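User: Please predict the structure of the protein below. I'd like the answer in structure-token form so I can feed it into my own downstream comparison script.

Assistant: Understood. Taking the following sequence of 57 residues as input:
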Amino acid sequence: MSFQVTIDLYNRIFQQQLPNPEVQVDYEVWTRINNSLPAHYSLPDNTIFPVISRIPE
């Protein structure tokens, strides 16, 4: 059974920590993701961001 929570609980992994209380995510999945990332990690990852920004729309 899935337990939904606001994505705001996981803002620490995003560079832009904007409130999004309307976005609901699976607590178990996102807690597992959050716990598996290094403390300093954030999305987008600074290493990959330049690569993503070169992708044509």
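That's the full token string. Residues 27-36 form the longest helix (10 residues).
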